[in-house]
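Practice problem 4.
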């Protein structure tokens, strides 16, 4: 099915004029001479989202995330550029669209009236909005007396109950209590299942990873990267790790170089321009992961710090690997690959994080269990194996056989069991097995 673009932006700029004082602003209005300086909150921004996309906006403070959200929601106009928004958009942000002198109930009515609802429709929506906000005893108090969490609750409750085509959430879950945040996330998941388009602005990368499909990375008003969560978020996390280590002066120097077009990515800039000590850029992390080399991967490394140690990945591709070590270095992450569950034995080499399709790998228990194989299924030499990754039995030979389990492991969120079928050892995914009968 061809998806329709619900947001389409090209060459979007947002310019503000900054003044050193109110006097300068007054003179700028009254005389032909300019007393301010131009500041571009957004510069040549282009991106599109299709119906049902969940897009996360990331970037350090001042990158333009909220400005872009406000433009999509129609709250502030762009200075120039082409924007097509196919549907109504609702922005959820602390204080967004709320009038402090009005009560919570009056704010509900005002916001809904501005969105084209009749008073009869508003009266019908109002009980659900108040109930969702959990502000019943405060709903007739002025909003200026609300805490930031209460304002966020009210804004969220209004926005989700008017059933918008596009929902924009700008740090609205970062205030208030955890229970309401979980309730709001559940509502957002329901919207996701309905195929709503959502823009999610948050500093919580774990929420981004759980909730979003695409990530738009803004860097001082410009699009740095736009792509899938698996592609962009690791790059942004690596950037943050380096950014936090930079002294204030070097941060400012990097920003100047980016805005002037003299800097590309941060790792390269650090290597060429920074006084940051090399030891601060290298970190080894213990991990426990299992995965496959991606089809697009071309190289492995005998030494991740030496590009000259690269060798072809092709002959090592079609099997499952374990990783017990990760190295983070100059914004790049590398996993060590081993054919055994060891960081010493069976080591093949190192691979860039983005070239290794992996999941967290955890031993659950080694308790004996009994299963019956309930349908046609492949047996595997290692958990999370595919047809090209260590299949050791055909799909029909295991059906209705007894499976004596010796070991249970978790791969990502899935359970895999290791045991014997007719004396042959193999791994089988839990979805293919009947109820467990634990031995006495």
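Answer key:
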């Amino acid at each position: 099915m061809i998806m329709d673009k619900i947001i389409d932006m090209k060459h979007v700029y947002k310019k503000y004029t900054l003044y050193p004082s109110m006097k300068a602003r007054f003179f700028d209005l009254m005389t032909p001479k300019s007393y301010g300086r131009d500041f571009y909150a957004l510069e040549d921004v282009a991106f599109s989202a299709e119906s049902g996309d969940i897009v996360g906006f990331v970037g350090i403070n001042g990158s333009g995330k909220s400005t872009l959200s406000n433009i999509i929601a129609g709250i502030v106009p762009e200075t120039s550029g082409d924007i097509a928004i196919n549907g109504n958009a609702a922005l959820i942000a602390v204080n967004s669209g709320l009038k402090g002198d009005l009560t919570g109930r009056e704010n509900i009515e005002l916001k809904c009236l501005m969105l084209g609802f009749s008073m009869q429709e508003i009266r019908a929506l109002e009980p659900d909005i108040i109930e969702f906000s959990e502000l019943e005893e405060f709903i007739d108090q002025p909003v200026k007396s609300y805490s930031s969490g209460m304002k966020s609750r009210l804004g969220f409750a209004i926005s989700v109950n008017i059933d918008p085509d596009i929902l924009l959430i700008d740090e609205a879950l970062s205030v208030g209590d955890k229970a309401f945040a979980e309730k709001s996330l559940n509502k957002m998941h329901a919207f996701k299942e309905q195929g709503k388009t959502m823009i999610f602005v948050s500093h919580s990368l774990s929420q981004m990873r759980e909730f979003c499909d695409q990530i738009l990375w803004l860097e001082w008003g410009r699009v740095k990267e736009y792509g899938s969560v698996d592609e962009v978020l690791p790059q942004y996390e690596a950037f943050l790790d380096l950014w936090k280590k930079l002294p204030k002066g070097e941060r400012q120097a990097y920003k100047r170089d980016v805005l002037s077009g003299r800097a590309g990515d941060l790792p390269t800039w650090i290597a060429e321009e920074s006084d940051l000590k090399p030891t601060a850029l290298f970190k080894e992390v213990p991990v426990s992961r299992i995965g496959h080399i991606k089809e697009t991967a071309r190289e492995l490394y005998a030494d991740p710090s030496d590009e000259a140690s690269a060798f072809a990945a092709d002959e090592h591709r079609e099997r499952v690997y374990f990783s017990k070590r990760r190295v983070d270095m100059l914004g790049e992450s590398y996993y060590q690959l081993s054919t055994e569950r060891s960081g010493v034995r069976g080591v093949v080499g190192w691979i860039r994080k983005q070239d290794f399709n992996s999941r967290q790998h955890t031993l659950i228990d080694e308790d004996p269990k009994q299963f019956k194989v309930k349908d046609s299924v492949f047996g595997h030499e290692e958990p999370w194996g595919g047809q090209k990754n260590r299949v050791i039995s055909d799909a029909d030979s295991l059906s209705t056989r007894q499976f004596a389990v010796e070991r249970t492991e978790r791969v990502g969120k899935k359970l895999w069991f290791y045991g014997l079928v007719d004396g042959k050892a193999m791994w089988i995914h839990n979805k293919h097995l009947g109820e467990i009968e634990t031995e006495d």
